[in-house]
Amino acid sequence: MTRLNGLKGLTWIELLVVACGCLFLLICAVPAFIALRQHAFRASCANNLARMGKAMLAYANDHNGALPRAGGPTSRWGGPVLWNASDRAKAFALLPDGSQGQATTSSSLYLLVKYAHVPTETFVCRADAGTTLFKLPDVSATPQAPTLADAWDFGPVAYRHSSYSYHIPYGSYALTTSRDPGLAVAADRNPWIDSPAGDAEDISRFEPDMAPYTGSPEQARKGNSPSHGGKGQNVLYLDGHVTFQKRAYCGLDDDNIYMTATSRDRGTPVGMVPSPSVGPMNGRDSVLVHDSQYLGPAMSRTTTTHHAQEVDSKTLKQTAVVATLDCPLPEHKNAIWCSTFQMAWDRLKTDVIGEPIEVLGAEELANRLNATAFPPGDIEAQSYYANAGFVKNGIIERIQKDMAQRFPSEPAPAFDIRYKTLPDVIMAYAYLNVDVGFQHPYYVNNDPFTFAASDGGKSKVTSFCSYARTSDGNNAAVREQAEILYYDYGDSAEAVQFAVDLGRNTYPYQVILARVPSCSTFGDATRTLREKAELFQKDPDYEVLHTLRPIDTMVVPDVLYKLTHHFEELLGKCLGNRAWTEHVIFDAMQKIDFTLSRTGVSLKSEARMGAAASRGRPPEQLAKPRHLRFDRPFLICVKKRQPGATPFFLMWVDNAELMQLVARDP
After folding, report:
1. Would you give the distance in Å from CA 18 to the centre of its chain?
2. I need a labelling partner for 637 at 20 to 30 A (CA). Which of 128, 162, 545, 643 fits?
3. Model-wide pTM > 0.85
């Protein structure tokens, strides 16, 4: 009772002192708790990698020294993988002879689950935001994969269930136990590739803190994995040991484990962002990568260093979208054509209307669309989808189901409420998804680059080029991948005309840029391009002139945009076909997501339409440097790599409205 009376006698000042003391202890304890938690996560992560390392070596003992590699002997990294396929050939899209196909790093790691019985929780780092444990019961029941041993990857969204980057096991430098024991084979997530948390770094400003390490902590962190707050990464080496490295250039020869080396015979502390088309440069080059939702059959979109804003074409003053190749091109404006709207129109005409579509009040545009159909053979079947039908007959559900199977990494198409509520709706839908990755990424152009529009306006824009300020061992490979389709010497720099295939080895598609005078239509532009290229091939000096030589230079502006366009000419118009006179077009829309950067071209486009019931010189020219600067209006053409193929994307770049402007100094 005496003690109780003593507590009651505490003054409010004494109570405040006690409370402040408790608060101080709490404030001190929180950082300690966080640090302890991070240390625990780091230790748990190291244990996971160590367990994976032991399983890899055991797997290699059973496979003639080869570490896990999913797919076939000639498969490529990129995916996607049919995780619940009934057999290996179907899972990795292998040809009958077991060649070709595509696989993911996660499917390679999954071989440890499938054949070495490593638990799926081993592949999840608790510090890796957005990654969750793969449990078979959480996935829709399928008879093809009743057990973990029957699956081929960590489910339909495998990139969300594997925290670790793995040395690209494909190409000329596949992993075997005969490699140098100090080769890094796995680690925490690559900072240059998106994770489930969407936290990929922007490599354009990467300046690593190298020996004697006088740079800021932020410099080192930028090149580190995001999994442990940028403080470093757990790294598994071929001999099986795991260490926590505070910098990413911790491989052989101080090799950056997250980048492709720039030397042909050793690792390098700085290199290129890896992609499915750019793997290890040599046997000492560790290239640790993970999969992301953006990885597709051709390349990873995460190698793009700029990001486009979504815009509606109505807000663009210097850009127009045209519906057909023979539509007149507007003067002093960018012009864009993509095949998806034509594809949707073709399916509606063939599958629903059954004859050329008549549109009252938009006869000219309807006639152009009816007169030109896009040839399906001019694009690979796996790159597009098109369908049409009646909503009441389940066409929306059919489109969503087919799209989920054809493009599983893309969100299912959504249609606004009008498609479900308006009476007797007929509709058409088309989707295109193409990635063309250059075998060797071009160099970021750090020199000022000004684009001159046809109306005289000038803009400073970001760009990429075919040369580096200093030799990095990769100059020749970068330059030699470009092929000059024609080059016309003019009387002045402004009068020079040329066309370039930016990646002669890209297949099945090619990317062509042409600096030519403006044409009246895209049809005229492509015919001119083809004619000039055919004539150039007959030049006696063609074998010398069609290559980009060391004395030549090429600079290309980055072009990127995500736009939505509504074909206002069609909206609100009635169909004129006899059986469809009561139908009014309420939707005629096209979306185009396009990026031209140093790593390649990425193109996604969809279109929908709905109607309800109401292209001999002086010898001295051979030694003259050619400067292929796309600093004034030019044509972008993306097409299948075959003679006479119809392009599926064309853009006349007249001005810098859809480029990345260089920020002005304050």
Report:
1. 58
2. 545
3. no
